[in-house]
């Protein structure tokens, strides 16, 4: 993409590793990595899997380099910089987030909307939890934990299915979210849409 994104923020780590590892095969075209690296450098990664995939690329390595590592030479090395811990969340002013769920794909179609109030800095998952607490018959949902974080498997009793190639897609201003529900933090007045979709 023109802004340096390759796929989405989650695919960037492996894409950068692959591009760096195969750089010599691009001749005569040279790959300019500056834009892509500025994207990952500016992003606040929260998912351990995403961090594990992007870190090698940031130090000019790939997983392929593991085969040639000299572990004995690195045992005396110590980190010269510690990764700062995320600051504890303090008191945040409440914000209102608009949230809707839509199924125009399968079975009985539906569309429901609500507005919930959450502390600023809340994740989309927390917004969904408040909506479900306030109106469980409409906004109930189910999740499962994956190595990439929380994955929404069902909303309003409608479950995603690999057989039917369906999933719940989350959008803001008609654009797909680049982060999962467990890390994405909606801003005040934002409208988040959960749309039952196919791939």
TrEMBL record:
InterPro entries, per the entry: Cbl-bd_prot (IPR002157), Cobalamin_Transport (IPR051588), Transcobalamin-like_C (IPR027954)
Summarize where cyanocob(III)alamin binds, as residue positions: 8, 53, 151-152, 177, 199
One Gene Ontology cellular component annotation? extracellular space
Alphabetically sorted, this entry's keywords are:
Cobalt, Cobalt transport, Ion transport, Secreted, Signal, Transport
Q: In Gene Ontology terms, what is a biological process of this protein?
A: cobalamin transport
Pfam assignment, any one = DUF4430
Read off the Gene3D superfamilies from this record.
1.50.10.20, 2.170.130.30
Boundaries of each Transcobalamin-like C-terminal domain copy?
121-193
- What subcellular compartments does it reside in? Secreted
One of the entry's Gene Ontology molecular-function terms is: cobalamin binding
The family note in this entry says: Belongs to the eukaryotic cobalamin transport proteins family.
Name of this protein: IF factor
Identify the species of origin: Pteruthius melanotis
**Gene of origin?**
Gif_0
